[in-house]
Amino acid sequence: MLFVGDLRHYRVETTLDSGMRLSIRAIQPDDKELLAEHFERLSPGSQYQLFFGFHGEFTRQELEYMANPNFLEHAAIVATVCDSEMDEHIVGASRYVALPDGQYAEFALSVLDQHRRKGIGSLLLLHLARLAEHWGVKELHADVLTSNRNALSFLGRRGFRSIGTSASVHGLSRSLASGSSALAVARPVGENAAGPAEKP
C-alpha cells in the first residue's frame, strides 16, 4: 500500500512511440511557475474548454492551491519533458478532487495542443486513476462542454458513460471497480482538454 509520503514522490519515466522522453510525476509546491506557463501555452480554445470560459492570469492563491494538493481527497500529477538545455516543462496536467463522501471524484485533464495524439492524455488519466484508487475513490466524474467532441470521444473510448447534460455541459462517469488498468487502450489518440475548471 502506498502512503501519502509515497504519493507525493510518485514518478514514472516512459518513452512515447514518437521517441519523446516523458515523466509522469506528482505535482510539487515549487511547480507553480511551470503550471502557470502550461496554462498560458494552451490555445484560447483549449483554455475555454478546460475552464468553461476564458481565464486570465492566475492569482498566487490559485497557484498555491493547485500546486499543493494533500494527495488524499485532492491529488494532481503532471507530464513533463526537458528541452535541449534540460529545463523542465509541463506538457500535460491532471487532478482529481473527491466529493465529501470520498466515493466519487471530479477530475480535470489538459494536454498542450502541439503534444496531443501522442498518448499523454491516456497516461495522465491512467496514473491519476491509480492515485484515486489508493484514496478509495470508486468512480471518476468529468464535466465536458458538449462542443468538445474530442474530449467526449476520448473519455467514451475509455468506458465513461453519460450521466446527463445540463445547458452546454455533458456529465460523464466511470467506475473504477474493474481497476485503473481498464482505462488503458491499445492506441490512444485524440487527447483534448477535459474536465471541470481547476479552481480553489
Task: Give me the secondary-structure topology.
Layout (H helix, E strand, L loop, with lengths): L3 H4 L3 E5 L5 E6 L5 H10 L2 H8 L8 H8 L6 E9 L5 E11 L5 E8 L8 H16 L3 E7 L3 H8 L4 E6 L2 E7 L25
Parallel strand pairs: 5-6
Antiparallel strand pairs: 1-2, 2-3, 3-4, 4-5, 6-8, 7-8
Helix pairs in contact: 2-4
What would your notes on this structure say?
The chain has 200 residues and is of the alpha+beta class. The protein has one domain: 3-Layer(aba) Sandwich (Aminopeptidase). Helix content is 27%, strand content 30%. The chain is built from six helices and eight strands; from the N terminus they run αββαααβββαβαββ. An eight-stranded mixed β-sheet has the order 1-2-3-4-5-6-8-7, sandwiched between helices. Strand 1 (11-15) and strand 2 form a beta hairpin. The longest helix has 16 residues, at 120-135. The chain is globular and about 45 Å long. Residues 185-193 and 195-200 have low confidence and may be disordered.
Number of helical runs? 6
**Rg to the nearest angstrom?**
15 Å
Q: Using the coordinates shown, work out and report the CATH topology.
A: Aminopeptidase
Mean pLDDT: 87
Number of domains: 1
| pLDDT < 50 stretches | 185-193, 195-200
Shape: globular
Fourth-level CATH superfamily: Gcn5-related N-acetyltransferase (GNAT)
What is the SS-derived class? alpha+beta
Q: What share of residues are in beta strands?
A: 25-35%
Helicity level, as a percent range?
Answer: 25-40%
Main β-sheet description:
8 strands, mixed
Do you know the CATH architecture? 3-Layer(aba) Sandwich
* CATH level 1 class label: Alpha Beta
Order of helices and strands: HEEHHHEEEHEHEE
Ends distance: 29 Å
Number of strands: 8
Strand order of the largest sheet: 1-2-3-4-5-6-8-7
